[in-house]
Design brief:
about 30% strand; about 475 residues; alpha+beta; lipid-binding; two-stranded parallel sheet; Oxysterol-binding protein; Porin; 22 strands
């Protein structure tokens, strides 16, 4: 169970904080019935929770919050000084935690084999691409791939949430890692996530908190950040506070101190000079949320199409319809598991991570995207993995029994390339604080930026099951 935030409408807005939910009498009785069957420390991964505490999107989509501030992300590989570059990465890491609807909610648990893909149109005319798949259900594992070829950025990650009942609270322990790569510098940044807590689930107002330690570490430069997301104590302290240090990994010497609040202003202090300045202010920050293909172009196992009835009902507070549709999807998943048997399923778009210091990713994208080739070629390779942009649909040559439901009767996504060359690259940031994109041009919709690739034959790839797939022009 991974908790998000949404405000209940059962009380006046002025009475409820942005990270709080007041549960009504009827809703409270449902929660109490579920909780009465649990003991402290119980694993919640197999507990079916009522729909009134659900956020109307899948965990696979919610992960994209991490990529939602391109004004900070895109210039990172251009920062020349290694320490300043690491500080900028830490700034980017901290900038996404404020993205939330109010209250206390959890995203939908993806079903096994569920897929979500999306893209971003950036202000300089370039684009980011995202592919994710639920690679395990028990225990839950959400694997994802993100790349911006024009800016030498790639992220691979697997999120492994583990939830427990803790008495008057629920904890979601966010295991797993992400690796952010700057391909032009051959650098990797290993990051972990703070844990998430819902307090007051038995009595009082439900309150959302981030807590415990998170790490940002770059083995190539030898810097690391140890960040504490502080929970409020019984006696003192404040909500949403952070603290921590950036240090040299080899010596442990502290270089910068971090402080502030993840939902507001965060600061960084140079310990050699004593100078303290603003790192990021989330108060009025505007994230750039991921875009997805229209529902009519999505397959039945793609997140937004799969959960469409459920999420629409949640938004309308129609708990009866939301519960019925969610139950239908989960029952179908159980039926598939019973027919499939244990140990006979493997991810479609991801393959086992290689041994070594990246092994804890568990799964990585099952495709070779050659970062030594021009961005246009890398984009072709990415869009040949799965449908991402508007106009792409999917068809596979593999046997029917190994297909996802959404991939059995569709068309094939075209490998595509930009119709026009990319805009000039961004310039590196000159200070620690938030940076602005150099170009203020309004990008065209992605469907207009790209046209079907007409040169050469179809692109073929082999998935993790050993089946061959072919991607050609959608109109062929």
């Amino acid at each position: 169970m991974v908790l998000g935030h949404r405000k209940s409408t059962s009380v006046e807005e002025s009475d409820v904080g942005e990270d709080e939910t007041v549960v009504g009498k009827e809703e409270g009785s449902v929660l109490s019935h579920i909780i009465s069957q649990l003991r402290p420390g119980a694993d919640l991964s197999r507990v079916t929770l009522p729909t009134f505490i659900l956020e109307p999107r899948s965990m696979l989509e919610r992960i994209t919050n991490f990529m939602a501030h391109p004004e900070l992300m895109l210039t990172l590989p251009l920062v020349e000084d290694p320490l300043k570059r690491f500080v900028a990465v830490t700034q980017f890491y901290l900038c996404g935690w404020h993205i939330k609807p109010p209250g206390v909610k959890k995203p939908l648990n993806p079903i096994l084999g569920e897929i979500f893909t999306g893209y971003w149109d950036y202000a300089d005319g370039t684009h980011g691409y995202y592919i994710s798949e639920q690679t395990s259900h028990h225990p839950p594992k959400s694997s994802y791939f993100f790349m911006v070829p024009s800016h030498h950025i790639r992220i691979d990650g697997t999120l492994k949430p583990r939830s427990k009942f803790l008495g008057n609270s629920v904890g979601s322990f966010m295991e797993g890692i992400a690796i952010m790569r700057f391909l032009n510098r051959k650098e990797r940044y290993f990051v972990t996530q703070p844990n998430m807590y819902a307090r007051g689930i038995l009595f009082g107002k439900m309150k959302y908190e981030l807590g415990d330690q998170a790490i940002v570490r770059c083995p190539e430069t030898g810097y690391e950040a140890d960040i504490e997301f502080k929970t409020k104590g019984w006696v003192g302290g404040a909500y949403n506070a952070i603290g921590g240090y950036i240090r040299q990994s080899s010596t442990g010497r502290k270089l910068y101190e971090l402080s502030g609040h993840w939902h507001g202003a965060m600061y960084i202090q140079d310990l050699s000079t004593g100078k303290k300045e603003l790192l990021f202010d989330a108060t009025n920050a505007k994230p750039s949320m991921v875009k997805a293909r229209p529902l009519e172009e999505q397959g039945p196992r793609e997140s937004q199409k799969l959960w469409n009835i459920t999420t629409n009902a949640i938004k309308k507070a129609d708990q009866k319809t939301a519960t019925e549709d969610k139950t239908r999807i989960e029952d179908e998943q159980r039926r598939e598991a019973a027919e499939r048997g244990e140990g006979s399923w493997r991810p479609k778009l991801f393959k086992p991570a290689p041994a070594g210091d990246e092994e804890s990713l568990d799964w990585i994208i099952n495709a070779d995207v050659d970062d030594k080739t021009p961005p246009e070629k890398q984009i072709e390779q990415i869009l040949a993995i799965a449908p991402i942009m508007p106009g792409q649909t999917y068809q596979s040559q593999q046997p029917q029994q190994s297909q996802l439901p959404g991939q059995s009767n569709g068309q094939i996504p075209p490998p595509v390339q930009p119709a026009q060359p990319a805009q000039p690259a961004l310039q590196p940031q000159q200070r620690v604080g938030p940076v602005a994109l150099q170009s203020q041009q309004t990008p065209q919709p992605l469907s207009q930026q790209y046209q079907p690739h007409t040169v050469g034959g179809p692109i073929k790839r082999t998935d993790s099951l050993g089946n061959e797939e072919t991607f050609i022009d959608a109109e062929s």
